From TrEMBL:
Keyword Amino-acid biosynthesis: no
GO MF annotation terms: mRNA binding
BP GO annotations: mRNA splice site recognition
GO CC terms, sorted: U1 snRNP
Domain of life of the native organism: Eukaryota
Region of interest (Disordered), ranges: 246-321
Annotated Pfam families: LUC7
Biased composition (Basic and acidic residues): 246-274, 285-310
Record-given protein name: LUC7-like protein
Amino acid sequence: MSARDAMAAMLDELMGPKRNVELGKDTKVSFDDPNICTYYLVGFCPHDMFTNTKADLGACQLVHDDNLRRMYPESPEYGQLGFERRLLRFLVHLDEDNMRRIRKNKDKLSGMDDGGKRKLEDEKRQILRDISTMDEELKTLMAGAEQAGSEGDISKCQELVAKSELIEAEKHSLEERLEKLNESPTQTAPGIEEMSMKPMEVCEVCGSMLIINDAQQRIEEHLTGKMHTGFQKIRTMIQHLKDKIKEFGDAEEQRREERRKARAEESTDKDSKDRRHRSRSPHRSSRDERSRDSRRDRDRDYRRGNDRDHRRDHRHRDRRY
Ligand SMILES: [Zn+2]
Ligand SMILES: [Zn+2]
């Protein structure tokens, strides 16, 4: 990386990918900008977790923007962009890989692993069995040959000797094979031989091979190491994200329900307004009529100063309601 590229990467890291935008222009970076690492926005980027371990994922190619990460939970888009699901999918994938490794290491320990120690020991045992069977056959053949010789049966004697020579050759090649197998464990699978020296177990969190009753310092190194803490963090985050996604779903459901209710109310409101509008027309005209009437009445009352008329007018008006 040239010094210029290194500076650019550093500026990206510090100021976000829109650092080149001129001042005064729109400097708003959207959360779903393709250069932004959305894993980091939601919580953490798995690429950061296992550097220089067996589970190293390589460096993240996207920008880890602290400003955006601070803004994200406060923004109206929080939980609306599918970022949580995306991180959940990645973490579940990593967790499944980890589970597979745990199972594989357990199989290895119990000697079930193909090409492992058990297969090797089985083959050695089989060769030893074959050799001892051959030794028995050779004894019988030699005894037979001796007897045939003492009886003067030369051709039978020769036949039995030839047979025993064949078996002798076969036995020799088996012994060579056995010798090779006895050399091979330290050459082909040193781990297995080494492991069988001390009782081991597989860590249920990160799949590491652990020596049972190991030194306290080694135990602590493992428990605080990147692999162990990383896979523990992944499991915790998976649960957290599942809860969050359910929360977002519930909130969305509630918003939908509220919108539905609001729409329903609006339409009943509109209905009743329409109804009122229809029924109000005669009503309003009657009120207009009444006001004309009452004006006339008032004028009349005023002119007459008549109480009885005034009361009658009230009755008259009430009936109109
Ligand atoms: Zn990232
Ligand atoms: Zn562990």
